[in-house]
Amino acid sequence: MSDAVFTPSPPSRIRLALRKPGFVAGLLIIGFSLMLALFPGGFAPYDPNAIDYLAVRQPPSWAHPFGTDLLGRDSLSRVIWAYQVNMQMAVLATVFALVIGVVVGALVGYYRGIADLIFGRVVDAVITFPFLVLVIAVVAVLGPGLVNMYIAITLVGWVYYARLMRAEVIAQMGNDYAAAGIVMGYSDRRIIFRHLLPNAITPVIVYWMTDMALAILLGSSLGYLGLGAQPPQSEWGVLIAEGRNFISTAWWLSLMPGIAIVLTGLGFSLLGDGLADLLRPRG
Amino acid sequence: MSSLFYILKRFLMMIPTFFLVMIIIFLLVRLLPGDPAIAMAGDRASDADIQAIRERLGLTEPMLVQFWLFLTNTVQGDLGRSILMRTDVIDVIADRLPITVFLTVYSVALSLLIAGPLAFVAALNRGRWPDAVIRTVFQIGLSMPVFYIGLVLLTFLAAQLRLFPVGGYGDTFGDRLYHLFLPSITVALYTSAIIMRNLRSAIIEVLDAEYVQFARAKGLPPRLILGRHVLRNALISTVTLLGLSIGNLMSGTLVTETVFAVPGMGRLMLEAIFARDYPLIQGLTLTFAVLVSFVFLMTDLFQSRLDPRMRLQ
Amino acid sequence: MMKTVLGVTVAATLALPALAQERGGTLNFARYDGSRLIDPIYADRNPDIWMVGSLFDTLLRGSADGNSVEPGLAESFSVSDDGKTVSMTLREGVLFADGSAMSGDDVVFSLDRARNPDLSPWAGLLGSIDTVSADGTAITIALKSPDPTILSMLATFNTAIVSKAAFEAATGETDQDKSAAIFAAKTAGVGSGPFYLCGFEQGASMDFCANENYWRMGADGEPLPYLDGVHFEIIPDDATRILSLQAGEVDAAEFIPFSRVSELDADPNIDMQLYPSTRIIYSPINTRETRADGSPNPLADARVRQALNYGTNKEALIGLVLHGAGQPMSSPLMAKATQYADDLSPLYAYDMEKAKALMSEAGVGEGTQITFTTLAGSADDATIFAALQQMWAPLGIDLEVEQVDGATRGAKNRSGEFDIHTYGWVNDVNDPSQVVGWLGHTPTAKAVGTGWENAEFNTLFDGAAAEMDPEARKDMFAKMQALYADAAPLLFMYETPFAVALGNAVEGYVQTPLGNNIFEEATVSR
Could you tell me which chain B residue has the CA closest to the CA of A261? Predict the structure, then answer.
């Protein structure tokens, strides 16, 4: 195989994957989450920001299946609208880090030399830095809010993707087809982006799935500290933080968004495992 | 290459890393809105008071002069004086560090106790129901926000059932194990999920490897295969993972320490950031960096011991 | 002739010890934040200020209602007719916690230290003092000009008496080093308060031990305090602090979120206390013609600020944030409990029609963007924002939130880079001048950062600072309150009590309207 762009024979692999209940469950959860995130208005029974002074902290009922919150807002509607924020968080907090990391990692892994040396120091500096502290400090400098949170997480997060990508590219370089490509006089760009990258990216994609679940958790931690989503935007971490004083008296306030976080995390993780199987080169 | 030479080389490589860390943190704290003088003087102080405090703290000096002082003092082992605590940063850190280290080590130990056996069960039953159940349960642990799970544990196990204390962190070793159990298990729920995933796939990888298949075909007893190949491989991958995530583990205690009222480094860092206590933030960050680098080095040395294929380079 | 107020013998000493007084034991107290340095002149944060009175004593003491003073370390005091001399007689036989006797020298030393602007951030409060001298137990304070607040100042934490000998013997070169060394020593040291500091772990815990030499007598005729000591645990998380009390690990937990007051009130094992306070919650409004970025500021028009005040349903806000445990501000400049507070209630009673009329009169139209700066992580602030956003929408206001930490909020207040932000205040002194200066007097703090400037107000304020006739002074404060209410540089919100949850074993603990934690007469039955 001289020009071996790794191409799985799609139909059989996908059919095989769809037989795995975990992968299917993951697909369903994330698919449904995306639906909720894209069309929250179609699913939420109430306006998530409608305050009702007279009906605060109502327990779950037919009218309000998840009860009402501290301001009398419908908790179910708030959890549903939070899908919009949290799914956006999962994607936007990671996708730029993914792209930057993949490109930098591939280049550094291919060329090595002085760039690799500098890259090594940067990686060391970033990973020896307390992660949460860096994110909190960057958010504090830029001002709280989702966009600044994405910037902060990206500034730190790309390093992890780049490190993974670099290692994979170096490993792939040892393979025949890379050597063949060089011998055949292909341009660096072609070798990197047409040959090395598609083969090296599988673990990165799998890591990305986990990272999206982590991004939701991190985002909710920052929301809890008041540095993430801004009120009245509803976000799971903020919703849990609002309900945390009432775990024994109004448990539904924190439990429902908690379930949403766990379910979405589970979805991403099952999807990641399934993708790993799907994309694993057969050997 | 002797390992002594290797260690020396690693130490030399740490110098630019620490230098970079110092530049980043030095600039970052000064970019934060407000400054220690405003935080220290309080909202009611006059502008003149604040200017006086700035001068006393040396904040009116040019940036380069301030950085040079920070650099030279740090090299001499002087991290400066905490504005918030009114004592030397070194002393403050010496007070808090053992608690965070204890919490981290404790939670890692608990994670290993939980994740180790279950990872074996899951791997050996790959694809069957025990595997699915174990993975799902751990996945739930991985997705739970620390501040929520911590509070749930406190509410039910501590306040209602009175099995554990709500606050405090104990004086003696045994006392500390008891007091810090809940915060540690809270962190461990998360850490063990990561370890379990990693360990499970490491074991599966070995089981699928040709030399193990061969050993099986030769009829070697499964216990021997497990002991000789699987355990070692599992240990290597777990140590690597723990080494790499030690930084996240330690900074992750920030939220846990706040919820459980444990006076460790994480909570201190949060307070220091809010008070714009430049020397303390800088000192804490450097301490983190030194600790994490040390753990990285130990991980590498450990790996090379266990795995002859991985030569020090 | 001199107006003389004679010392009243502590009534309790005359009472017969009919019932055995509960004594001994350690009270465990959960705090939201720790003290860092408890020294009369360096205490600058509430967790420090509110503990000074437990370790140190002042010459005078605030009365229970907070509106007058009673004898403290001075057993009698008087002010001369021209208002320029304060004479006091020290109580005989008062000992510091280390057993040494207190003398006039200690008073001179302490007051000189307190009014030294190079040392104390509070020196400005004692600006009228010219000299302090002692002759035996007779103390004379000569003033540069009459000062109506001087007696209140002598009952304030920053004038507490420290032992000169013990302080000077401490290690350290500067005054601040000595103070820190004394605090770190954790021994019966420089104060004569009911307790001394006997344990301290930065950010974790603190211990007070009973001062056996304390001069005040308890109901049983023996010296106070009744307790052997107080142990403080720092638990910053509200929910954890309450759990700690419910689990019986502590006997008291302070700063209970108002949303949980009714739940704890219903708990038979908990005595939920709401202590009256001088705390007010308000929001400064930027009154400058232009915003920091140079754009025109719609809030510069007083009618718009009035409209916002009319458009705010305070009762609803109190219901949502405080769950009923509070009341709307009735004076625009201070809490009800403050001396000279006018009752102007209802202060901007909710009236949407009036608010709309004012808005259209001011020509401020639909879609006016205003940023509301809140404290990140504060549940109360988040609720206030959500409610205001909805309440003000009919006025055409598009309210946006900006969450920042405390240091950033302070910096923004100073530089004027805000539209409206949340804020709160508790008096440190038993006198309205401090809070009025802070909120309205432009030279003091740009009228709490709003940039509001009113010449008449400033003149009245300066005049009141030298007015010795209480009636005339009261009148001046009334005028200032009327001016301020009309100009509305603030969103006037509400007053809140101090919510402290006590275990049933605790009796006699008090938090004063100024916030001071008083353990002197507290008991705990085990």
Answer: B143
* Residue in C257, C378, C390 closest to A51 by CB: C390
User: How far is the C-alpha of B127 from the C-alpha of B125, rounded, in Å?
Assistant: 6
Q: Is-cis flag, bond preceding C346, omega within 30?
A: yes
Place of tokens 């020290």: C90
Q: Are C377 and A51 an interchain contact pair (Cβ–Cβ within 8 Å)?
A: no
Instruction: Compute CA distances B270 → B87, B153, C232, whole Å.
Output: 18, 23, 21
Measured between CA atoms, the residue of chain A closest to residue C318 is A53
Q: Show the tokens assigned to B268.
A: 């201190």
User: Domains of chain A (ranges plus CATH)?
Assistant: 36-279 (1.10.3720.10)
Are residues C319 and A53, on separate chains, in Cβ contact within 8 Å?
A: yes
Which candidate from B132, B251, B293 shows the least CB-CB separation from A131?
A: B251
HSE (CB half, 13 Å, CA atoms) of C232?
28
Within 8 A by CB and 6+ apart from C244, the residues are B159, B166, B167, B261, C30, C233, C235, C250, C253
Task: Please indicate whether, in this complex, the C-beta atoms of A261 and B144 are within 8 angstroms of each other.
Answer: yes
Per-residue pLDDT of C246-297, as tens digits, reads 999 999 999 999 989 989 999 999 999 999 999 999 999 999 999 988 999 9
Q: Do A133 and B254 touch (CB under 8 A)?
A: yes
* Number of neighbours of residue A6 by Cβ within 10 angstroms: 16
- Round the CA-based radius of gyration of chain C to a whole number and report it: 24
Touching subunits of B (3+ CB pairs, under 8 Å) are A, C
Q: Do B274 and C243 touch (CB under 8 A)?
A: no
The sign one gets for the Cα dihedral B79, B80, B84, B88 is positive
Residues of B in contact with A138 (CB under 8 A): 28
Neighbours of chain C (3+ CB pairs under 8 A): A, B
The minimum CA-CA distance between C135 and chain A, rounded to whole Å, is 56
Compute the count of residue pairs across chains A and B with CB atoms less than 8 Å apart.
121
The beta strand positions in C186-329, using DSSP E, are 195-201, 205-210, 229-234, 252-253, 270-275, 280-284, 327-328
Q: Give A183-208 pLDDT, tens digit per residue.
A: 777 888 888 877 788 778 888 888 89
Q: Please tell me if residue C246 touches chain B, with a CB cutoff of 8 Å.
A: yes
Compute how many other C-beta atoms are within 10 angstroms of the C-beta atom of residue B72: 10
Beta bridge partners of C77: C5, C88
At residue C508, does pLDDT exceed 90? yes
Nearest beta carbon to residue A70 from set C377, C383, C389: C383
- CA of C151 to nearest chain B CA: how many angstroms apart? 22
Task: Calculate how close chain A gets to C314, using CA atoms only, in Å.
Answer: 12
Nearest residue of C to residue A227, measured between CA atoms: C376
User: What's residue B308's pLDDT?
Assistant: 57
Residue C375 dihedral angles phi and psi, to the nearest 5°: -85, 125
Whether B7 shows a pLDDT value over 60: the answer reads yes
User: CA distances (Å), B101 to each of B82, B95, B300, B302, C88, in order?
Assistant: 21, 11, 20, 20, 56
HSE-CB of A37 using CA atoms within 13 angstroms: 19
Looking at CA atoms only, how far is residue B255 from chain A in angstroms?
8
Taking only the tens place, the pLDDT of each residue in A234-276 is 899 888 888 888 888 888 888 889 899 989 988 998 888 788 7
Q: Which two tokens stand for residue C87?
A: 């004479």
Contact C230, C250 (CB under 8 A): no
pTM listed for this prediction: 0.87
Q: Does A245 sit within 8 Å of C385, measured CB to CB?
A: no
Of C372, C368, C373, C376, residue with least CA distance to C398:
C368
| Rounded Cα gap, residues A278 and A272, in angstroms | 10
Is residue C344 within 8 Å of C331, Cβ to Cβ?
Answer: yes
